């Protein structure tokens, strides 16, 4: 649009309006075009223009709708879209009156209908606008519905846009009018009316919805006309798509009528019925489960329905078991005959629509298969599988594709229902993506379940020969590309299931070779070979070995393809093939030859300068596979050449990143030894990797550092001294950057290389190490740093390090104590320094910090030395003496040190600790002894896996030693008198002791669940408040352990815990507030780690949690703070925990019930009540407001319909939050809290709107309109998103 329009819009519009009356249609068209440009330009404001000018625009545009030129008419309709957003309500009413006044018989009715729909879809949505449109249009549209498709289309748009503005009376009137159309309307009008009813159904109140269902059921019973039955069936399917949750309960009444409609001899009606059943099965699988037999029968009947074509009866294999036993000769003859018919003299009848029924039946079976439970799946498997295979020879391409696709779904479900999953992929495969998706579906062919005749795998194996033969013929004869792709999909799925190949597979391989002639099929063929190779490498497929050379030939041919995606994918598949071939290459010359061919092609592609980068990268990975997996197939010269190629690729900037990863894989391979590489090559690689640490690319530096660590750990002796010095200097610079990600590998490399550098450089390392000790470092860097200190101490720097580390502040940190202990032990300073340290403990002048530091160091010395002569290093009397110290921090540190020492020497120290605990159950010493016992159970009870995946032998030994004392520890802990004033001088100290005792008890229960968990359950039910508190803490501790922790190392842990879950959840009503808070927080842990425990009690647990989210007036007290009174809510912590637990349950919903096989209905989540509590939470404490927002977003994701009824309240609450205006003197903390809450509200708004637009997969909620919500989105949320608040939210971390 010319820029001059923006200067004076009125001046620009006047001549355009005059030209609209020109006799020349070109002038009229160009004027409308320019007018549309002005109206659509939001920067041009018409606010200052006179009302008469706007009215003249309206008159001109509406007059143009009746222009005799079609292009002018269409452009006039286009102008209405931006125009209606600029007019007032009076002018809008004028437009509606003039457009709706056209009689149904007028010739321009269709154009006016289009204009009305354009206005409805573009007018700003406000409450007043919605009411005006409904009032002015509804009474005009309803009388004309029976004779006008245009009126129905306008009604659909009106209901979609302003359905929430309809009153209940108007909804009922509209429903009755649409039902009248079904009764007396014409064909096309009736079909459009079905869509209108679907739009209206989302706004039907419950009584009208029930009336609609009653109308359908009664009409089905009384209808005899196929045409009317078809409309009723279409209505059922449309209602299901519009609101499956509401229609689902009525399907037992409606579905039989739809099945009965299939018996009527009318193909259009049958097609509609099959489509409706497909919708029911997909959207309401639980309600349709009772009709599985009827669905299978209908699909089986109509998938063969072809009245105009007489096929051989032998072609249809009715009896699954008998048909699979047909001789090869018979099958060959049948197949040849059917394929000759299909692709030779095809039957053709333009009026034949029976193929639509066959296609609908195939889709119906494909939709049903994934919804079947394992028992039903096995029941119907034989008949459905045989039936689908018999229809592979379908003459219609579209039907054949659906049949083959349905069989692919069947094979996929066979893997899901009958195959045990594997979780760990083979790490030796250098693949660019994980192959878990394929390996997870692979089964051991010797599985005992396969011996059963009813096992789907057995049936599929018997059928596979005929399937492969039919697939081969399709690939060779059919001209249809989609059919061939579907055939390759089926073949790929079969390779994930079959344990052995039939002899007919030999005919399938040539078909693969022939398919490579079509570019569009090459990726599918390569994917098939990849699946076959991965499956064979993981578990072996009997009979595949003889075909591998041909498959390799196909892959290598594809590697030379001119399209880089095909070539790169082929080289990627070569990785899987190398693993498969390498296993048997020594005994098979053919396999060895295949490896040579792969190696030759991979090297050629990796070194080619004109090859696409992706192809070169995959070629490099293929070479690495040869070097690591097929080392014996390469000669020394070939291996050297490959090594040189890798180094060359490392120096090349374009391939540097992938070369780094390739070199890391080579060095990590167990088959690679020091003798495989020359010292010069290793030195060059190490030097190049070290030099890359000076680059600016962070990702490149991290990759180089990780690979350098692997090289140095395995081949440090092969690296030259000069390169070692260079590397150490570079790494010292890396340490100075204080990059936590680089810290751990850098320290590990330095620990290996430091002994080979001079004293000066070692001193620099000492300085860097000491600096790191005084700083906060990541947990992964602690061990490497201690290793570096160990090496430096052994190199003669122990005294220097000790003098600099022996500082009060450093000794009080855990890292400082560990570092000093390593220096003392590794540097041989024990004899000199340990007595001096002990003397500090007994000194009356020593400060508390000095004593604490010494105790921590002594404990770490014992930890470093382990069992080797450290039992007498720290006498137990020395530590007990500290228990009488007046300073509590000294006593606690002494207790922790006692625990560290006792954990390494259980038999010497633990009996003494238990003896004193029994003698003094209510003293201050008892609390300290509990702390010491906690340290013991932490170390001895932790059954951690080492790097090889086995249990740590030392910890297992200590756990065994601790087990002998476990019963006595158990009894002693429950015998403690926590109510003693001497034991718990303050309430918070008492709670702390109970928490520590609970952790000890929990760890003991994990060590011996069969013995202790039943005792926990009995104490949970019968114990007093103190005992319940300890048990609750223990159980909460157990539930809070993630599944990757030691809990999963205990066999049948879930079985031991499940019996106490019910009694534990009952304590959600415990009268003791502290106990109730602990139980509430434990529910969140259960939802995260043991969601199956909630399967049978979910509804009850949620009700109890909801009760704990309600503020209790009796828990709110008033506290006097100086001249002010302040309210304290003692129930706030419980409410916060309850909201957190409810949110955790919402997150875990999809996993609840998995272990037991119990399907938890979404109704058990009580989403309506959840939203209600979340709405109240938006008025509560700040933390509860944030969690409430998270809950609302999750509810919208689970079921958007629950949110719809609360949109008004949400719009009001969110508007209040996003429009908060803080005062100038607001403190920083309040500003941050407000910002966090506003960002969370914005994120929740997006989540809710996304769910509404997506409609939870129904395609129906995008049209849901709530005036208040739309106003909030446009006026408040849009402004916030465009402002600074949203920008700040983009950088904020997620909760």
Automatic annotation (TrEMBL):
<keyword id="KW-0677">Repeat</keyword>
<feature type="domain" description="TATA-binding protein interacting (TIP20)">
    <location>
        <begin position="1096"/>
        <end position="1276"/>
    </location>
</feature>
<protein>
    <submittedName>
        <fullName>Armadillo-type protein</fullName>
    </submittedName>
</protein>
<dbReference type="InterPro" id="IPR039852">
    <property type="entry name" value="CAND1/CAND2"/>
</dbReference>
<dbReference type="InterPro" id="IPR013932">
    <property type="entry name" value="TATA-bd_TIP120"/>
</dbReference>
<feature type="region of interest" description="Disordered">
    <location>
        <begin position="313"/>
        <end position="348"/>
    </location>
</feature>
<dbReference type="Pfam" id="PF08623">
    <property type="entry name" value="TIP120"/>
</dbReference>
<dbReference type="InterPro" id="IPR016024">
    <property type="entry name" value="ARM-type_fold"/>
</dbReference>
<dbReference type="Pfam" id="PF25782">
    <property type="entry name" value="TPR_CAND1"/>
</dbReference>
<dbReference type="InterPro" id="IPR011989">
    <property type="entry name" value="ARM-like"/>
</dbReference>
<comment type="similarity">
    <text>Belongs to the CAND family.</text>
</comment>
<keyword id="KW-0833">Ubl conjugation pathway</keyword>
């Amino acid at each position: 649009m010319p820029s001059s329009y923006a200067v004076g819009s009125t001046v620009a519009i006047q001549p355009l309006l005059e030209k609209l009356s020109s006799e020349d249609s070109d002038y009229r068209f160009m004027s409308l075009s320019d007018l549309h440009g002005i109206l659509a330009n939001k920067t041009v404001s018409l606010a200052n223009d006179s009302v008469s000018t706007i009215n003249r625009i309206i008159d001109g545009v509406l007059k143009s709708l009746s222009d005799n030129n079609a292009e002018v008419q269409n452009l006039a309709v286009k102008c209405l879209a931006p125009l209606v957003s600029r007019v007032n309500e009076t002018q809008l009413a004028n437009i509606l009156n003039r457009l709706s006044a056209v009689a149904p018989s007028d010739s321009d009715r269709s154009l006016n209908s289009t204009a009305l729909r354009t206005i409805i879809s573009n007018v700003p949505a406000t409450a007043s606008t919605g009411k005006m449109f409904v009032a002015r249009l509804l009474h005009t549209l309803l009388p004309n519905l029976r004779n006008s498709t245009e009126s129905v289309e306008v009604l659909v748009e009106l209901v979609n846009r302003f359905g929430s503005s309809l009153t209940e009376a108007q909804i009922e009137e509209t429903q009755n009018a649409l039902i009248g159309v079904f009764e007396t309307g014409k064909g096309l009008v009736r079909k459009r009316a079905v869509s209108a009813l679907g739009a209206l159904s989302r706004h039907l109140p419950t009584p009208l919805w029930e009336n609609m269902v009653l109308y359908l059921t009664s009409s089905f019973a009384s209808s005899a006309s196929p045409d009317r039955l078809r409309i009723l069936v279409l209505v059922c399917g449309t209602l299901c798509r519009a609101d499956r949750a509401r229609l689902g309960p009525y399907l037992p009444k409606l579905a039989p009528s739809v099945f009965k409609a299939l018996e009527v001899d009318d193909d259009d009606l049958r097609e509609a019925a099959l489509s409706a059943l497909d919708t029911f099965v997909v959207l309401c699988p639980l309600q349709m489960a009772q009709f599985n037999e009827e669905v299978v029968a209908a699909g089986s009947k109509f998938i063969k329905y072809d009245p105009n074509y007489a096929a051989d009866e032998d072609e249809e294999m009715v009896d699954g078991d008998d048909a699979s036993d047909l001789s090869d000769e018979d099958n060959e003859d049948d197949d040849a005959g059917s394929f000759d018919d299909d692709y030779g003299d095809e039957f053709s009848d333009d009026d034949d629509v029976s193929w639509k029924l066959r296609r609908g039946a195939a889709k119906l079976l494909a939709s049903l298969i994934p919804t079947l439970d394992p028992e039903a799946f096995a029941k119907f498997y034989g008949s459905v599988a045989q039936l689908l295979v018999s229809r592979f020879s379908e003459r219609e391409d579209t039907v054949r594709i659906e049949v083959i696709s349905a069989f692919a779904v069947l094979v996929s479900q066979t893997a899901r229902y009958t195959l045990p999953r594997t979780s760990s992929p083979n790490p030796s495969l250098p693949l660019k993506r994980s192959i878990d998706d394929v390996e997870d579906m692979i089964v051991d062919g010797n599985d005992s379940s396969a011996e059963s005749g009813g096992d789907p795998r057995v049936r599929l194996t018997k059928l596979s020969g005929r399937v492969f033969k039919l697939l081969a013929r399709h690939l060779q004869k059919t001209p249809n590309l989609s059919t061939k792709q579907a055939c390759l999909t089926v073949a790929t799925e079969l390779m994930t299931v079959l344990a052995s190949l039939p002899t007919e597979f030999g005919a399938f391989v040539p078909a693969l070779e022939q398919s490579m002639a079509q570019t569009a099929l090459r990726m599918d063929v390569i994917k098939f070979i990849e699946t076959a190779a991965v499956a064979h490498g993981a578990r072996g497929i009997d009979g595949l070995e003889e075909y591998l050379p041909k498959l390799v030939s196909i892959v290598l041919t594809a590697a030379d393809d001119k399209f880089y995606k095909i070539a790169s994918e082929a080289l990627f598949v070569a990785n899987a093939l190398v693993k498969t071939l390498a296993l048997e290459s020594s005994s098979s010359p053919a396999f060895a030859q295949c490896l040579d061919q792969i190696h030759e092609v991979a090297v050629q592609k990796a070194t080619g300068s004109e090859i696409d980068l992706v192809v070169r990268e995959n070629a490099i990975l293929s070479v690495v596979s040869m070097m690591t997996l097929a080392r014996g197939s390469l000669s020394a010269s070939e291996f050297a050449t490959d090594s040189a190629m890798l180094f060359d690729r490392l120096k090349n900037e374009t391939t540097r990143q992938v070369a780094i990863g390739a070199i890391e894989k080579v060095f990590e391979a167990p088959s690679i030894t020091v003798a495989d590489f020359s010292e010069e090559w290793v030195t060059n690689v190490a030097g190049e990797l070290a030099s890359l640490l000076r680059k600016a690319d962070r990702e490149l530096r991290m990759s180089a550092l990780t690979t350098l660590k692997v090289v140095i750990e395995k081949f440090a002796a092969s690296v030259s001294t000069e390169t070692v010095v260079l590397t150490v200097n570079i790494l010292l610079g890396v340490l100075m950057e204080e990059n936590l990600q680089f810290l751990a590998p850098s320290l590990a490399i330095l620990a290996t290389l430091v002994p080979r550098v001079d004293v000066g450089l070692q001193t620099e390392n000492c300085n860097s190490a000491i600096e790191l000790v005084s700083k906060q470092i990541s947990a992964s860097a602690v061990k490497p740093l201690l290793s570096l200190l160990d090496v430096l101490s052994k190199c003669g720097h122990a005294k220097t390090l000790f003098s600099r580390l022996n500082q009060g502040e450093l000794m009080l940190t855990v890292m400082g104590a560990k570092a000093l202990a390593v220096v003392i032990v590794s540097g041989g300073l024990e004899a000199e320094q340990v007595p001096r340290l002990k003397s500090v403990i007994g000194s009356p002048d020593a400060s508390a910090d000095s004593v604490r530091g010494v105790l921590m160091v002594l404990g770490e010395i014992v930890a470093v030395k382990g069992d080797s002569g450290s039992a007498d290093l720290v006498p137990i009397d020395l530590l007990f003496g500290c228990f009488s110290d007046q300073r509590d921090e000294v006593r606690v540190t002494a207790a922790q040190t006692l625990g560290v020492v006792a954990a390494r020497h259980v038999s010497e120290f633990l009996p003494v600790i238990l003896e004193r605990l029994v003698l003094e159950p209510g003293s201050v010493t008892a609390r300290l002894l509990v702390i010491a016992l906690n340290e013991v159970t932490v170390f001895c009870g932790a059954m951690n896996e080492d790097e090889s995946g086995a249990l740590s032998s030392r910890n297992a030994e200590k756990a065994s030693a601790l087990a002998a004392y476990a019963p006595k520890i158990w009894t002693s802990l429950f015998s403690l008198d926590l109510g003693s004033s001497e034991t718990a001088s303050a309430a918070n100290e008492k709670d702390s002791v109970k928490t520590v005792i609970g952790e000890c008890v929990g760890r003991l229960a994990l060590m011996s669940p069969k013995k202790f968990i039943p005792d926990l359950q009995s104490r949970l039910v019968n114990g007093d408040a103190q005992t319940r508190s300890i048990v609750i803490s223990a159980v909460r501790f157990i539930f809070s352990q993630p599944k990757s922790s030691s809990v999963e190392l205990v066999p049948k842990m879930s079985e031991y815990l499940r019996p106490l879950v019910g009694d534990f959840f009952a304590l959600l009503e415990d009268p003791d507030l502290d106990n109730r808070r602990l139980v509430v927080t434990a529910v969140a842990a259960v939802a995260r780690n043991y969601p199956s425990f909630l399967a049978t009690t979910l509804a009850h647990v949620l009700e109890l949690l909801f009760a704990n989210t309600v503020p209790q007036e009796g828990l709110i007290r008033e506290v006097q703070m100086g001249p002010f009174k302040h309210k304290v809510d003692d129930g706030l912590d419980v409410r916060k925990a309850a909201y957190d637990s409810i949110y955790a349950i919402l997150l875990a919903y999809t996993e609840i019930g998995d272990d037991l096989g119990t399907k938890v209905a979404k109704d058990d989540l009580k989403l309506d009540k959840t939203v209600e509590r979340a709405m109240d939470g938006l008025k509560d404490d700040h933390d509860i407001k944030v969690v409430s927002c998270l809950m609302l977003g999750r509810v919208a994701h689970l079921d958007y319909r629950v949110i719809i009824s609360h949109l008004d309240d949400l719009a009001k609450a969110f508007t209040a939050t996003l429009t908060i205006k803080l005062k100038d003197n607001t403190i920083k903390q309040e500003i941050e809290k407000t910002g966090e809450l506003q960002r969370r509200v914005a994120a929740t708004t997006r989540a809710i709107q996304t769910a509404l637009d997506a409609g939870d997969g129904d395609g129906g909620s995008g049209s849901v309109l709530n005036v208040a919500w739309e106003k909030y989105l446009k006026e408040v949320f849009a402004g916030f998103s465009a402002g600074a608040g949203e920008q700040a939210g983009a950088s904020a971390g997620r909760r």
